[in-house]
Every structure is written in structure tokens, then in C-alpha cells.
Amino acid sequence: MRGLDFSQTPHHVGVILDGNRRWAKANQLDSSDVGVANSSRGHKAGAEKIIEFLGWCEQSQVRVVTLWLLSTDNFKRTPEELDALLKIIGDTVDALAATGRWNIKAVGALELLPEWLREKLTNLKPTRSDGVEVNVAISYGGRREIVDAVKSYLADADAHGRDLHEASEQLNIEEVSKFLYTAGQPDPELIIRTSGEQRLGGFLLWQSALSEYYFCEAYWPDFRRVDFLRALRAYSLRHRRFGS
């Protein structure tokens, strides 16, 4: 911590919280601790890490954090595992909101979620004018976000009386950015993925064009403050070329 240059701290950090199920498998309490129950234990351990992690972000002067909690691909899981995961996500959002420390915003294709969770996420309201802005990416896919942004752009163009030719002529990077789930927020300078996997999987596909990546071997429930500080240190030592 003493060796970090906080003038080089990324303003927006995205995190792929990976490895919950593998953590549960590696930490089985007994031979009967398998299947959905074991998977849920991993997801609960991962959820418990989030508040601790956001505290580290506050200490490090990070302003925006995007946490990938549920991908659109996760809907391919068994109904039993998906239902358990959605319940944990709902409890996690409640716990984050109850702290009163951060503004929580849900980003993703919320219409794919069950009504009880969609209503909970839709009703999240800003409560602070300071502190870390926390995006919880739920039912999120990078390609889906871009498609939704273009659809919203075209709907807005139609509502303002522009025909398809005019709308296509005016379509550009800045216009699409206005309709992303994270519109109005800075793009992430740093994206962290835990569990040793070295791929983005579509996370913040549009926004991460110029991001720096940091891959950590630890499963998300085992992610430590020193791992986070190492990620910040690695970021601060990089010479960002911004695509040039």
C-alpha cells in the first residue's frame, strides 16, 4: 500500500468474479457436499467477499466498480442451480444496499430475470452523492449489451422523428455509447479476472477496448487484499498506449 502511486489508480475497475464453483469443489467439507448444495456454498463464499473487496476499492480511491455476478450464458445451468444462484444474488444486492455505503446500479438484460429479482433491481435508487459507484452486472453479456444499445438508439431516433436512413447516417461510436448499460460512466481502465482463466468472456466488450487486464490465479472467494494491491501496482507500472 505504501508503495502505490494513487495518482495512477484506475477510476473504474471491472471484476470477473470467477472460480466460485471450483473453490467449493476444492474445499469440500465431506463426500456428501456435492451438486447444487456445494455450488451454492461456493457462490455464497464469493458473495461474502464482495463487501470486503469494495472496502479495499474505497481505500484505494477507485470511483467505479463493475462486478460480473451473472452472465446470460449462466441461464444454461440446471434450473435448480440457477434458482439457488439467483437467490444468492438477490441476497447479495440486499446486503450491499443495506450498508448505505455505495450507490448500487444493476446493468444487464434484466427482462430475462424472474419478476421478483427484476423488481428488486429496478427499484435500486442512488442514495449518495459520493463514494464508490457499484455496477452489479446481472444477466449480462457484452454482445447482448451492444445489440440492446443499438436497439435503444433506433427507438430513440424513431421517437424523435428520424427515419432509418437519417438514423444510420448519424450512428457513430459516441451515439452507441449513450445507450450502453454503463452510459455516463468512464470506461474501465483495469479489468481483473480471478481463477486463472485468461479471457474476458464478453465482459464489458465495448467498454474494454483500451482496458488493461490483470489475471489472478486465486479463486474469487480466496482473493485477498494483497492480490488486489498487486493488480493496482501492475496497472500503475504499465505504459498505456491507448491503441496507438
TrEMBL record:
One of its GO terms (molecular function) is Z-farnesyl diphosphate synthase activity. Gene3D superfamilies: Decaprenyl diphosphate synthase-like. The keyword Transcription regulation does not apply. One of its GO terms (biological process) is polyprenol biosynthetic process. InterPro entries: UPP_synth-like, UPP_synth-like_sf. GO terms for cellular component: plasma membrane. It holds the Pfam family Prenyltransf. Keywords: Transferase. This is Unannotated protein. It comes from freshwater metagenome.
